[in-house]
Amino acid sequence: MFSVLAFDLGATSSRGIVFSIINGNITQQEVYRFTGYKYFDSTKNAYFWNINDIISQIKSIILTASKKYDIQSIGIDSWGCDFVLLDSHNDKLMDPLCYETMLMNENYNICEELPEYFFEITGIPNSPINTSSQLIYLKRNYPEIISQAHSLLMIPDYILFLLTGCKYSESSIASTTQLFDLEKRTWSKNLVDYLEIPIKIFPKIILPFSRIGYCEIDDSTSIPIHSIVSHDTACAVFTIPESSSPIYFISSGTWSIIGEKNEIGLLKSKGLSTSYSYEQAGDGKILKLKNILGMWYIEKVANEIKNTTNEHFNIPDIQELLMKKIPKNNVIDLDKIKLSSHNNISKSLIKIYGKYGHMESIDVFQIIYQNLAFKYADILSDLNHNKYPIFIFGGGSKSKFMNQLITNITQSKVIPIYDEASALGNSIAQFIALNLIKSKDEAYKLLKNIFDLKEYTPINNPIFNEYHLIYINNKRGNAK
């Protein structure tokens, strides 16, 4: 039996999972998950990450797992953009800023100060959460911290440094910063110079499958640590089998990421669009990504209905009820409803559509699911999706109703993959680094033996086609 320990760190929860190869099959066993490491400092009016707590939990999971399994490798993936600054003694100068600080009204427009060539070089549009914007914020609010900084490490890179003493940055996580040159695949000195930050504080870029160092468990035990695809989105996409054609996918969660994986030359030949981010996939290809609110709408409306009507809906109940309903001619722009709803989306929808007939709570869910699927299809169309298979992962991939809805509207096969896709991609990269698996295709064959990878095939429904056309025409009309 060969086992690796994959840490998948998320903004709301994190987990450590042991993956093992036993008799030609891959098995997984969660050690445990933890939450509660984001905090708000009212004196600084900012959100931070309690990085010491994260490290403590990781070390505890390593100790627990190593007592039960013969762990032969450790890998870490996480969300992007956030980072830790170290002084000349390699001590952290402050807890890392949480990207949510940059979404506050007073910080939101900092990104607008950056020139257009930041996007042209990096493929990352100006956004308040980017590392580049956070550095401007820190220079203004904590100039003494910036002046003392000798190293900048992204969240997974910092954790690996504490475990091994080695400073590196893996390409996929580095590409989330808006300081990474898309074509040269290294830090952009021009952009770093613009921010008046010393280029020397940025570590050497490495690719996945490199052995970084060793984590000492005790006097007699040490575990190799490998670089994997460190950005969680890219790590999840890494589970998708290789293809000579473009790969299209949806990461369906509170936030949804709709994307395409392709060669950089093919993407650049179409021209880079500021509507998308272009990030490293970790295997030499590029991810073209669009980030939108996804299942957040469902979670929000479920809470609103519970608080106003005392009706309790859980996701499986919603799915069961929706399977029996016919499509509705209620075409909306979810983003506009969110902005105009005065913090109560369900009430706004009932007010708009209730005048056309009686509306029940389940009708509100149906409107949201249907229009979210229209939005997914619209973005995929903009990506020139052209009916290639769509891979879907994340919590939303468990929704049979939504999967079939996306299939019907796009008229494309939808393939939900793996509950813990990021952690699984993490483990596959480690198995490849250990030479226990030769390629992703070999891994995919092993996984098909143990995961029920149901494929959804399209049903041609003229009603959906008609409503989707209304959605597209409404969008075009609003754009004029």
TrEMBL record:
Stretches assigned to the Carbohydrate kinase FGGY N-terminal domain: 4-237
GO cellular component terms, A-Z: cytosol
GO biological process, one term: rhamnose catabolic process
UniProt xrefs under InterPro entries: ATPase_NBD (IPR043129), FGGY_C (IPR018485), FGGY_N (IPR018484)
Pfam families, per database record: FGGY_C (PF02782), FGGY_N (PF00370)
Domain annotation Carbohydrate kinase FGGY C-terminal: ranges: 250-433
Swiss-Prot/TrEMBL keywords: Kinase, Transferase
SUPFAM superfamilies, per database record: Actin-like ATPase domain
UniProt GO molecular function: glycerol kinase activity
Homology family: Belongs to the FGGY kinase family.
Stored PANTHER family: L-RHAMNULOKINASE (PTHR10196:SF93), SUGAR KINASE (PTHR10196)
Protein name per the record: FGGY family carbohydrate kinase
Organism: Enterococcus cecorum
